[in-house]
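Good morning C.,

I know you're traveling, so I'll keep this short. The sequence:
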Amino acid sequence: MDTEPYENSFTKAELRRELRRMWNQNHALNNDLIDLPDVPSIDTMMALRHAAMNVRKTWELGKDMQREHGLDLIPPNSECECAAGLWALIKSGIESKKLNQNNEPD
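The tokens, ready to paste straight into the viewer:
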């Protein structure tokens, strides 16, 4: 077992690039959750890609979205297809919640 402490081997430029990428993804996810576009931005798909790989049916939903919206918006790779499918589930859940809140009697 390796007992050496972890030492980050990234250069300052690599760390800045990684932090910028993560910030862009988090910012895009926040904006897309507010705006609820039909197709999320690439940065949002990249932020959701790991979670999406573990949710059932996200790939099928993503492929359906890809056929509807095209390869320019949803690139032909499984991570983006799954992320788009997860986005569809998230968006429908948010819209359903909003609809239920609007239909509740005062």
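Safe travels,
E.
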